[in-house]
Amino acid sequence: MASADELTFHEFEEATNLLAETPDAATTSRSDQLTPQGHVAVAVGSGGSYGAEDEVEEESDKAALLQEKQQQQQPGFWTFSYYQSFFDVDTSQVLDRIKGSLLPRPGHNFVRHHLRNRPDLYGPFWICATLAFVLAVTGNLTLVLAQRRDPSIHYSPQFHKVTVAGISIYCYAWLVPLALWGFLRWRKGVQERMGPYTFLETVCIYGYSLFVFIPMVVLWLIPVPWLQWIFGALALGLSAAGLVFTLWPVVREDTRLVATALLSVVVLLHALLAMGCKLYFFQSLPPENMAPPPQITSLPSNIALSPTLPQSMAPS
């Protein structure tokens, strides 16, 4: 009886002879499915294309399974998991998008260079919350500083400014992008070449454009009116320029009248927001906040004052 080593030697010898007869042949080792005799299986192909069709089919099957898995894992928009993906950003991404909103320049699209088809709601949410809080705090600090300069000013905390600031900022950051997105979608039906941004991309653009107003509001604590207006104009120019440079690639395919009117409305609404914050939260002190001057009571001049004598000196 032949030993196992001799059998293995004969198997390799047979495979070598077969390869010598057919140079294009390739040997495959099937360790998981051995033949009953334990021989090495030999596959013969032509043109070096052995297994190409099997590899293509395997890759296509993997791609189909991966796509099916992604479709099964994608949650509905009414679930919390759907919106959780829009808060899945790291600090470096948020800082890069803030930097892009602070340094707008022509030809540098905020959506293409910073969002990269991955809009987030984390940055816009906290930027709006921070801006509303800073507006309310600085508006109260303005009255405190004014009271220290003039003791006649009566200061009382104005907590309602937090509510007013929050409602104003969040309504602007959501309703204006919604109206803009709806208008661009409508114009897409008129001009087929236009490709508007998605609603979340529009919200993200507006949310990050409001970041420049946070340092502007802090600088408004300087009690110099003309300097406050300069800071406001500078912040408004940077923020509005970022919006115009980002929206221009979308509206430039439309008619010149529509593109000019749309960008003008965008800049005008942004200017109204900045002016509204300045005039409401940093307004001049109303009369009720001024302490009333001391009242001096005087008698009419035609009434003569009768001298009074002490009771001990009164005639008896």
TrEMBL record:
Domain (Yip1) ranges: 102-274
Gene Ontology terms: biological process: vesicle-mediated transport
An example Gene Ontology CC term for this record: transport vesicle
Biased composition (Polar residues): 25-36
Topology with respect to the bilayer: Multi-pass membrane protein
UniProt keyword Transmembrane present: yes
Transmembrane segments annotated in the record for this chain: 121-144, 164-184, 205-223, 229-250, 257-281
This protein's UniProt keywords: Membrane, Transmembrane, Transmembrane helix
Subcellular location: Golgi apparatus membrane; Golgi apparatus, cis-Golgi network membrane; Golgi apparatus, trans-Golgi network membrane; Late endosome membrane
GO molecular function, one term: small GTPase binding
InterPro entries: Yip1_dom, Yip5/YIPF1/YIPF2
Cell membrane recorded as keyword: no
Region (Disordered): 16-38
Major site of localization recorded for this protein: Golgi
Recorded family membership: Belongs to the YIP1 family.
Protein name, entry field: Protein YIPF
Naturally occurring in which organism (per UniProt): Nomascus leucogenys (Northern white-cheeked gibbon)
